[in-house]
Sequence to fold (90 residues):
Amino acid sequence: MKIKINGQVFKGKQVELDEVADKKQVAFSFDVTSETYHDVTSLLYENDFEVDIPEKSMTFPATIKKYATSTTNLYEKGKTSEFYLKLREK
Fold:
């Protein structure tokens, strides 16, 4: 499922959509390569997002609730890591 965060498109895997305390929430995994690592982490450090899930006609402002990665060393060319991200509506 395509998930846009501040206009950047991510191919979400294992996408979970729900509501917590009347706030929308999306959790998903996605792959990050050594080539895209800097751009992705720079975006995530902002922690101020406009989330758009076109397939569900869902858009909401959000911040990070939970974040994890399978590998932290993506400085080596050709490496891939799976990131997990949970975003909750502000």
Remarks:
- Residues 32 and 41 are 10 Å apart (CA to CA).
- The longest helix spans residues 37-46.
- Strands lie at 2-5, 8-11, 13-20, 23-33, 49-53, 58-69, 80-89.
- The mean pLDDT is 95.
